[in-house]
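Internal ticket - ligand job 436, nickel (II) ion:
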Amino acid sequence: MTAFPEIDRIRYEGPESKNPLAFRHYNADEVVEGRSMRDHLRFSVVYWHTFRGQGADPFGPGTALRPWDDGSESVENAQNRARVAFEFIEKLGAPYYAFHDRDVAPEGSTLSESNKNLDAVVEVLQEEQERTGIKLLWGTANLFSNPRYMHGAATSPNCEAFAYAAAQVKKALEVTLQLGGEGYTFWGGREGYQNLWNTDIARELDHLAQFLHMAVDYAKEIGFEGQFYIEPKPKEPTKHQYDSDAAACLNFLRQYDLIDHLKLNLETNHATLAGHTMHHELEVAGSSGALGSLDANTGDLLLGWDTDQFPTDIYLTTQCMLSVLKYGGLKTGGVNFDAKVRRESFEPIDLFYAHIGGMDAFARGLKIAADIRADGQLQGLLVERYSNWDSGLGAEIEVGQHNLASLEKIMLEKGEAEANRSGRQEMLENLINTFL
Ligand code: XLS
Ligand code: NI
Ligand code: NI
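stdout (structure tokens):
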């Protein structure tokens, strides 16, 4: 059985190709800065959008045509869908995938039934991983869809919702380990608030930290050595999510002694919703040694919600890859397409076009970023901008030889600081454009 009979394996045909079902930039074996593109980019397909998304929006039901899916919540349908997912990922040539527990298997009427369903589908996932060599980038648990989580999971005022969520994470960690997953992600789901009149922030944050510590402890217990990630997002579904941006997450992780256990999984549209750029978020995480993985997508500047569109903007992907290369590359992380086709792109083939476009945009971003680095002008100008900290007074301050009084003395003698130099913003923007 094949779900995509008309599609062959997607191949690299080079920049001149006019074939919409070929890569023009992503050439998996091509070496950039000493590593293959495959290893730099570590592309990953998400199960929740690509195999569970129906294209529904608040104004109408799903439109997606998925002939392999009988629309039922049966385990058999879920197992069949898993096989289709691997056919797709294999034809696309992405080395990784990611899923939530409830994406892959139907929720049962009790926890043990849900666990049983999950085991039955995980068996197929394992078989398919072995058959294709495709690996699990990270696993996660859906702690936000079921009505029991209406007030949050780890931050719920209902301690039994917390307990149920803990049980779900325990099981999700076990299957992630079983499938050789390289990481495990916590996105806040409904961990936040809609209304401060009914919310005890301090208590909820303490609970969230306890919850994450329990996960870290259990991972150790079962021998799961994958990387934990926390994924910032400022709003949606709640008015305010606790993990609002990279800086807020880092502060939380430091406050609760979790900083050594979790890195950040950064998503472009979440950065936009936070009033930041993805570049900013990557630099905030990277400069704290916490750049873990990327949820690659983009928002729409005219729409104020998480539209999760496929990224095609070369300027954006260039910035992403400049930061990734600067901080030593993706280790356990990847470029994970947390993105969905538009409601109007309802045919199965649109899933191919969408991923090919995203992969090519990132491959191009990688090549451009490497060119900018090889050229060296950008880095040279940055080094030059801070050069008066390299010797004399600047170097003395940096090593801690001064205090307010000694600096006052110097300035009283000099009378005025040395003149500033231009920031050259426009020149630098023009310089970047010469590489695009
Ligand atoms: C939602 C998040 C979600 C996480 C995984 O906005 O991006 O998809 O990546 O739970
Ligand atoms: Ni995400
Ligand atoms: Ni998102």
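Auto-summary: The first helix runs from residue 37 to 41. The two ends are 43 Å apart (CA to CA).
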